[in-house]
Amino acid sequence: MTIENIYEQLAATTGKSRKIADYLIQRYNNEQSFNSNYENHTELAEWLREQNYSSLLEMFQDTAKPLFEAIHGADITMMFEILVARAISYTPSRSYYRRSFRTFSIESHLNNYITILESIAFDWENFDLLEHMKKDFSSDHHQRPEVYLDHYLYPSLIAYQIDMGNLEIIDFIRNLCLSDNNTQVLKSPAIIAITRCYNGELQQLLIDLLLAAKLQEGLRQSILEASDNGQLDVFKCMLNTVLEHNLLRFSSATRAVAVWMGLEIAADHKRIVEKLANLANVYLNDEQARKEGLASADVLELYVALWSTATHEMTNVLPLIQQMCESGKLYQKQVALYFLNQLDDAALKLSTASNMLADAEPKLLPMIHDIYQFGYWGYYNRDNFFTGIRQFPYFQDASVRQRDFSALTESLVNMPKAGYQLQQSPFEWCNYSVKPDDLYRKMLIITAYDCDLECINLLMTHASLGAGDERGALVKFLLNDFNDPIQRNFLFASLKDRSMQVRINALEHIKEMTLSHDEYAVLLDLLSLKTPEIRKSIIEIILKTDVIQRTDLLKRLLSDKVENRRLAGLDILLTMKKDDAVTETEITELLTLLPKSTEKEQVLIQTLQADKTKNYSKDNGFGIYDVNELPEAKPDLTIQNPNAIHDMLHISPERLSELFQSMHALIEQNKDHQYVAKTSYSDPFDVVLGNENYLRYRADAPIFTDPNYNSNDPTTHNIDNFVLPDVWRSWLSDNNVTIVEHYLLSHINHYITREFSSYRYQLYESWVLDDVAKYFRLAEITQAVYDNIRAHDHHALACRIIEQLWDEHPAHERFTLLHDQFAILMQNIPTENWQREVYITPSKNWQSDTVNFTTLIEVDDFHHLLNQLRLQAIADTDFLEYLALDVHLASLNDLFYTNLPIEDVARAYALGFFKESAIYRTFCIASSRDFSCFTSVQKHRYYNTADIAKQYPFLVTFAQKLAQHVIDIEVKRGDLPTTVSYLATEIKEHSGIDNFVNILLGLGKDTLTRGWISSYNSGKKDVLSSLLRVSVPRETDDAKALKAVVNGRIDDRRLLEAALYSPAWLPIVSKLLNWNGLESAAWYFHAHVNESISDEKMAVITRYSPIAKESFNDGAFDVNWFNDAYKTLGKERFELLYDCAKYITSGANHRRAQLFADATLGKIKATKALEKELNDKRNKDKLLAYSLIPLGKKSQEEALKRYDFLQAFLKVSKNFGAQRRASEAKAVEIALENLARNAGYQDTLRFGWQMETLKIQGLTEYFSPKALENIELFIHINEEGIASLICQKDGKKLSTIPAKLRKNAMIGEYKALVTDLKEQYRRAKASLELTMTRADTFSAKELTLLQSHPVIAPLLSQLLFVTDQDKIVHFNDALALNATTELAIAHPYHLYHAKEWLNYQHYAFEHQLIQPFKQIFRELYLVNEDEKTASASNRYDGHQIQPQKTLALLKTRGWSVDESHGLQRVYYRENIIAVLYAMADWFSPADIEAPTIEAVQFYDRKTGEKLALTEVPPIIFSEVMRDIDLVVSVAHVGGVDPEASHSTIEMRAAIVRELLPLLKLDNVKVEGNFAFIQGSLGEYTVHLGSAGVQKQGKGAINILAIQSQHRGKIFLPFADEDPRTAEIISKIILLSEDQKIKDPSILEQIC
Questions:
Q1: Run of H or E including 901
Q2: Helices (H), strands (E): how many in the chain?
């Protein structure tokens, strides 16, 4: 029976079944027109509920069975009747959050039942389930079934056939579990079918497969997570198997338990998961135990008892939940609510939670309101807002709405301002909160259902308790009667709301109202505010009034005593003048009303008094370009080949397939070719050609290494960037590939995507489709070819190589081919068709809601051809021809051009085709982003601006000219935005004193905008603040010139604010004001006040402080810098500068900086009261300030006291949630850094050592055995300094701590100390190395103190020291020296200088000395003879390096980026800056640059003078050159394997080679950096560095590694401890027997 026949019978249906038939017919119509079926589905569900059936089976027999029988006959009807009867045995939920619950309740199964009804409209008579399964489960991903089966129904159909004894399907399922050939993949529907059927043999097979999964973690996950979908007995058996065989050791099993239980967050808690699983196993099988669990005071036992009850029958648990919620104890209510939230029944959750809304218990309300949720419909569109709410079924009952609203109102007025929080209840991973604005939002939504007046009044009464969004929605959507005095008064009161959006919404209503005299007075009063959005709206309201009213209001404003109101009046007058709505005489008379005029007013007055005030707009080119300046060009539509389109459309698909197969054969011949590849965004990496789907360029390709590479150069060919270019070129010559054939093959990937655009094509007018069908049947040809080739392993790579060869054809031939096609289109398609709307229903602009006008050239087929034509226009003559065509197409629709990026516009200007107006049009209309880019080329690194600017430098000139024009307009504007305001905020840099001063004059007394300013901010203050922020001086600007232009019009405070806001002006303002130390102090504030510090700013800050920018933001404080700035400026000037600095931050860091300053100056005392406050309130800023308070005379004792306090503070943090723990841990870390600097230590770690060493006497008890019941504990530190916990009994060491003691507090204390000591060991090694390279000194006394430290002392004992007399000594010898003797960790230079280096190298070998880091054998770099007379080292000149890797390497070694120098390393103590010169954008490096090292230069940090290399301390010189040598070795162009060094790969290759014969793996070979595996299902490679797996012709294969088994018994015979090596070996073994893989997550990838 055909589908048409089915719908004919449905249309003829009568009786109750007619409702079902109507639903199916409407659903079909919705699908055909791409409409939603939601309303249709909801209506049918409601009708089914109204029939009040007692069971699903009764519902089926009464409504659906007659339809099934009439259309499909008895057999199909019987099958579905049985499926419906069985449904109650399965879990009904089909959402992502499904649970294991089962029920006979119709409501829970209703959606699944409708799915069964939808199967009526399916051709079951011609459907073969087995054939469908063969295709669906096939390992060949091209074998796709013709139809889609619902994922709920599909497994049930399979299970039915199994139970009906269908041997073919049973054998098919059996083979899925047992077969080794893996032509079929065991997927989820088959697993669920096994759990739903009654075939014990198949169910046992599934269990056996679970136990045999071994390394196949994905297989284990697939089986377990599907096992609760079917029969309960099968699920119980699976759970028992998991416990019996300890499968919870696998993460897939623990995750499955958590998913079954609805405790996803608990999956990381192994102990909890084990308890859950064991409780579930007991409660599911023992009803009495389940009842006892329901009475348990243990929340986990109670929860699992509820869960197991619902897993048997969900309706049985509902009375228990309701009883607990009504009368249970607090913990029972909490568990009941948590369980309720796991149910997939929104109505039940809402109704239960709503009954508890009146509960005033703070420990319940957060949970109640977490359940009592409606969703969110947004406050942007009125129709969407109301429609969404009124379609919500819960709101339909008016009494329910009234009850809930009343309960919410009562809770709202009684709730504290901060709301309620509930943490770690009922389970430790749970956190809930509710605030008054949460309740207010729900009240708003309830009110919106019917806009009840009483509810609206209550919302207005309690509006202060709602959030700004909700108050805004109240004003925007619910206030509807402004004749009502209550609503009208509230509307005007909202004009003073703290939320800007509320004010704007109120003004939108007021614009449409007739106002009284008093109401106008309210508006005028608001004009005293500086808020741009408010001022703009009120001015617009005044401008809309009649002449008499407007004149009256204008007079009141101009005569007002408040400047902001007078400015508004001037702004109105200026707008009226531009619109010719006022005469010059009237202007003069009105200006006489001004009581006085400020500098800001004078700007507007001068504009008013000018002869003509220009009203700039798009129509007059914004005053900078001539709108009538159009290119004089007519497209040349001469056709070289009149059959161009015909030839293209009549290419033989067979011929194209042959050409493709020829390319595929070439790839197959070279598939094992290895090379180093690279992308624009990656480091070099190893590649095997046959593994790739994408074309990866060689790392040494010209596109990466040639700085002059130009893809538009006719002599440049893309294929030369790829590997084996001549091999691929041979494909062209050997096959005589024509240009037409090549075009189709090279664009195959584009045209086949049209099949996915069918929806869009449905929206076009019929005449558009006619033109597409007539001229663009290319998709039919390429689709036929693609269908033939896609089964080939390397088809994707072949397509991409063919694309890369396209430019082998001469550029003019390519252009002519496409130009002919377009010329034919232009001749044959009527002109009017190029000018018509193509959509049946025109689209809308989502921002402005205006209707778009879409023409033929924007249809994908036409646009693609035009864009390809543009790309082939390489020669100037071809490009000019293209331009004429592009401009002609644009002129048909009143546009300037159609398809030109900025670089093409610039090229057209350079060729004389365009005039400068074209560039200004592009900047002003087509792309303001392009304008932004070229106002500061260096500040737009994400775009290829620099390259374009280099080729067309006039773009920068035009951008600067336009920027100046925009600035001139903006500085003279009023409150209303100008037509170029949107361009002003796009300016990223402009220069000159005049601009700087005019912007400040334009701002007047306005404050500066704090924080980010977007292009949508058009208010005057925002725009001028943005312009000020990007202002820079010209090279010729100086303090004298600035003073002359300022001429007393701007006070010193304003200049300080401006210089801080735009720090480029700091040097000039500093000289003008003659403030000694101003620059240093200003940068001090930038470092300590900014929330985010740019790399450019950090480059300056590093000249003053060694603190990292991340640490500054976290609260680090440079005490020395502060003291220097404070002392130099003095108290009065420092405090003034502090106040001026508030505009450079948008957050609380400004107040924090004052707190830190007060602490450093001793205005805050480290009292017990302060410590108590810190412990009680946990204020992190005060904690940081605590560390900065002066230490006093007994500095060491005070430092130790504060150190102990900070450690205790950190210990308490462990009792809080993860997020709070992390934030407090960071605060303590920074506080310790501040305390160390306060105590005079060079680094935090050495300060910590000193403190810990002082405390070590208190830790001695941990190093001696201490009894705990029948065992003894102590901490042992070996000779290397590594700590471990020893547990012994009767003098014998135990391998593990007895299970009963593992939770003991003493065990936890010892473990925590071991962890701390191990972490200290790691940090100590790094710190000691840094100490050596900085030549930091110790006193012999300090070393003696460190000797008692159990971790540090073993490290120090392996090192050599140098005394202040240049004598080399061992650690023990150093301890015997005079206490005041100064020592340093010896650098190789000291050994070299003492002529002892070789001796100590021999000593190290002789005594088998193992040092914690390279000291004796560290590389040493000395100034060579050629460099002794030089000021720069050129020893690495000419080396090309990868910028990204270089920067990553050097940043870890103390280097930073400087705007003028590039890469630099600052030595603050020695006042030396080392600079690596290599031309690259180091702020945002792209490896495409591959810069060449030019020189290494050293500078004096204070004077900026170059240093001779002989003036540089030898250790600094050596370490700098060692860093550069590392860069040259590791980050050179060509690169190394990013995952492992060459030696590591060689070691792994050797191990694998030794393993192969032992494991009898004769289908594996090792070549280069890969293991090649010849499997049964494909050929694979495993990279010996990264462990990445690739399948030839497929690409990357993701295989989930089982981390816990990396060191399993298979690897014990081998010494290699590298877990990555173990992973590599396991993957090789797995893939060598790929026919045995059952993991569907792997099989779906490799097949």
A1: none
A2: 80, 25
Structure tokens at 550: 């407007």
Query: b/e for 490-515, b at 16 or more Cβ within 10 A?
Result: bbbebbebebebbbbbbbebbeeeeb
Radius of gyration of the chain (CA): 39
pLDDT digits (tens, 9 = 90+) for 1231-1280: 998 999 888 886 776 787 778 777 666 677 888 899 888 899 999 988 88
Which H or E run contains 919?
helix 916-921
What average pLDDT does range 688-705 have in this prediction?
A: 86
In the chain, the amino acid numbered 1578 is: G
| Ranges 979-993, 1131-1145, 1293-1307: which has the least confidence | 1293-1307
Instruction: Tell how strand 1382-1385 and strand 1360-1363 pair up.
Output: antiparallel
1068-1086 in b/e burial notation, b at 16+ Cβ within 10 A? bbbbbbebebbbbbbbbbb
Calpha distance 1514→1613 (Å, rounded): 48
pLDDT of 1490-1524, one tens digit each? 677 888 999 987 677 889 999 999 999 999 988 88
Ordered strands of the 1455-1458 beta sheet: 1432-1433, 1493-1500, 1472-1478, 1462-1467, 1455-1458
Q: Alpha-carbon distance 1560 to 1556, whole Å?
A: 6
Give the pLDDT confidence score for residue 1540 in this predicted structure.
43
Collapsing DSSP to helix, strand or coil, 1192 comes out as coil
pTM of structure = 0.68
Three-class SS state of 107: helix
CA distance 754 to 765: 17
Give the pLDDT of residue 909: 95
CA 635 to chain centre: 47
Q: How far, in Å, CA of 350 to CA of 1021, rounded?
A: 48
Helices (H), 1382-1511: 1388-1393, 1397-1406, 1443-1451
Measured between alpha carbons, how far is 1423 from 1566 in angstroms, rounded to an integer? 45
Grade residue 1535 by pLDDT with cuts at 50, 70 and 90. Answer: very low
Within 8 A by CB and 6+ apart from 282, the residues are: 289
Q: How far is it, in rounded angstroms, from Cα 1459 to Cα 1063?
A: 14
- Mean residue pLDDT of the chain comes to 86
Which tokens in the block code for residue 1117?
Answer: 């404080």
pLDDT digits (tens, 9 = 90+) for 394-436: 888 999 999 999 999 999 999 999 999 998 889 887 889 999 9
Q: How many CB atoms lie within 10 A of CB 1017?
A: 20
Separation CA 449–CA 385 (nearest Å)? 10
Residue-wise DSSP of 695-764: -PEETT-HHHH-TT--TTSTT--GGGGSSSHHHHHHHHHHHT--HHHHHHHHTHHHHGGGGGGHHHHTTB
1582 within 8 A of 1570, measured Cβ to Cβ: yes
Exposed/middle/buried for residue 1311 (C-beta within 10 Å: 0-12, 13-18, 19+):
middle
Q: Please report the pLDDT score of residue 1546 as a whole number.
A: 65
What length does the chain have? 1647
Which of 70-79, 761-770, 1382-1391 shows the lowest per-residue confidence on average (mean pLDDT)?
A: 761-770
Distance of CA 1044 to the CA centre of its chain: 50
Of 443-452, 791-800, 825-834, 1256-1265, the least confident: 1256-1265
Beta bridge partners of 1597: 1589
**Omega of the bond leading into 426 within 30 degrees of 0 (cis):** yes
Sign for the pseudo-dihedral over CA of 519, 524, 529, 530? positive
First to last CA, the chain: 35
Indicate the SS3 state at residue 432. strand
- The answer, yes or no, to whether residue 42 has pLDDT greater than 70, is yes
* Cα 24–Cα 28–Cα 34 angle in degrees, nearest 5: 140
* Token representation of residue 689: 């050609």
Cα–Cα separations (whole angstroms), residue 808 to 140, 734, 802, 813: 36, 14, 10, 11
